[in-house]
Structure formats: structure tokens, C-alpha cells
Design a protein that fits this description.
By secondary structure, the protein is mainly alpha-helical. Helix 1 crosses helix 10. The radius of gyration is 19 Å and the shape is globular.
Length: 269
């Protein structure tokens, strides 16, 4: 059952985070201040790139390559979907085109409305993925050609967490057949990297550890921002922080990543 595969993978990734937290703790503390916010240079570069990009193609997603918040994968996801769209039927091609257009339009409209905090920028990106993929029924595009998603369903792309994680969450909710295919593929790849260690997590890591991890990293509920051709509707924002005033724009919205925000989803590290 896809739910069982997903549950095992959730436990696997959660335990992996528990076991490696100490190893990375010192390094994370050293870089936490540097990567807490988008740098002024990254903000200006992204804003300039978004202004000159269009709704069609992958140019908008390329604007987020090499940013100081390490939001990676949007461009690769777009290129992969467009490259394989030729194998889908006319309806599937339309689903892909409209989902990507929704994402591109949303990124251009919302980027200038959130703070430079990396958590806020990431949540804006992730919420757009969930919103646009669902609204334009991306699940239906690859249903008969799951192999076209192979370049995206890759275990090593789950780290560090980002847009790939949100895409995996979405695919795992696309029905039994798709969820099972995604879960089994990730599990096999995990075993290729870590061997028997992947299987041993189920017996060495208690479910309570995974549950505790999910509770401590669960993001606060967010409100969907309607996307329109005239721009996003006005959103209430928190009081601007002092160093936000020097940036090209003031922005806000918050989250933390999490592979699996629902019972059958995956939690990444």
C-alpha cells in the first residue's frame, strides 16, 4: 500500500535527521546567521530577473538559481516537465503548461511582497507549488508515463530540502499507483546510498521520535494568496524588521520545510 511505503519513508528520513543532528549542529550554527535571510545582492538580482522574465518557458525559475537561501530545483523541475510534455496527451500538455505558468506568474507577483527571511521566501515558493500543481491537476499529466518523472524522483535531490521535496509530497498524494511508484523508487535509492541502514531504521528508530520531529518542525498554517493577471490581492504583513528597510522590497510569509505535511507524506531533512 502507498500509505505503508510513505510511512516507512517518513520514519526513515525522520530518524536520519535525529541521528545526524549532532554531526551538523556546529556547522549549522556557524552559517545560520549568514543564511537566515536573502542577501541584498540576491534580492536585487532576483527582482531584476523576475521583472524581465515572462510567463512562458523556464526563465522565471532560473531567477532563483544560486541564491543565498539555497532555494534550488525550480529551474530543473520546469525543464524536466517541459522536456517530457511531448509524451503526454493534449490534456496532459495543457496541465503542465498551465501549472508552470501559474508558478511563474505567482513568483513574479509575490516575491516583492515577502520579507527577505529565507523561511518566508521558501514558504512562498512551496505554497505556490502546492497551489499551482493542485489547481491545474498536474497529477493527471504523467499518470500513464511515470517514467518521465524519473529525473525528479531522486533520493539525493531531497537534501537540502526544497522544491523537490514539495514535488514529492504532491506526487505521493496523486493516488495509489503514483504514490507507490514514488515511494518504492525513493526507498530503493536510499538503500543504494546507505544499504541495510535504510531497512534498519524501522526497528532502531521509534515512531515517537518521528512524531516528535514532525511536531517540532510543523509550519504554522498559511493563507493562500490568490493569483490574478492583475497581481496578487493585498496581504496583511507583519511589522517590517529594521534591516528589511534597506532592501529593494519588503516581504513576509513564514515556513519551514517538511517532506510530508500530511499522514502519508514524506518528511525530509
Amino acid at each position: 500500500m502507498p500509505a505503508n511505503v510513505s510511512a516507512v519513508f517518513v520514519l526513515l528520513l525522520a530518524c536520519q535527521q535525529v541521528l545526524t543532528t549532532d554531526l551538523h549542529d556546529v556547522h549549522e550554527k556557524q552559517v545560520s546567521q549568514v543564511k537566515k535571510r536573502l542577501s541584498l545582492q540576491s534580492t536585487a538580482e532576483i527582482q531584476s530577473c523576475l521583472v524581465s522574465s515572462g510567463d512562458v518557458g523556464c526563465g522565471t525559475f532560473q531567477c532563483f538559481n544560486n541564491n543565498s537561501c539555497e532555494i534550488q530545483g525550480l529551474h530543473h523541475i520546469c525543464l524536466t516537465l517541459l522536456h517530457n510534455a511531448g509524451r503526454y496527451d493534449s490534456q496532459g500538455k495543457s496541465f503542465v503548461k498551465e501549472a508552470l505558468r501559474c508558478m511563474a506568474l505567482g513568483l513574479r507577483q509575490r516575491f516583492s511582497c515577502v520579507s527577505r527571511r529565507c523561511s518566508a521566501v521558501k514558504e512562498m515558493v512551496f505554497s505556490l507549488q502546492r497551489e499551482c500543481y493542485s489547481k491545474h491537476q498536474l497529477c493527471l499529466a504523467p499518470r500513464d508515463h511515470m517514467d518521465t518523472m524519473g529525473n525528479l524522483v531522486q533520493f539525493h535531490l531531497m537534501f537540502p530540502p526544497g522544491p523537490y521535496v514539495e514535488l514529492m509530497n504532491f506526487l505521493l498524494r496523486c493516488g495509489d499507483a503514483v504514490g507507490l511508484w514514488v515511494g518504492q523508487r525513493l526507498r530503493r535509492q536510499c538503500e543504494q546510498h546507505w544499504g541495510a541502514l535504510c531497512s534498519s531504521f524501522g526497528s532502531t528508530c521509534s515512531l515517537s521520535q518521528a512524531d516528535a520531529l514532525q511536531h517540532t518542525t510543523a509550519p504554522p498554517p498559511t493563507v493562500s494568496w490568490p493569483i490574478t493577471d492583475r497581481g496578487p490581492l493585498q496581504q496583511p504583513t507583519e511589522a517590517a524588521e529594521p534591516d528589511d528597510r534597506n532592501g529593494p522590497s519588503q516581504i513576509d510569509n513564514a515556513t519551514e520545510f517538511g517532506l510530508m505535511s500530511e499522514k502519508t507524506n514524506v518528511t525530509a531533512v
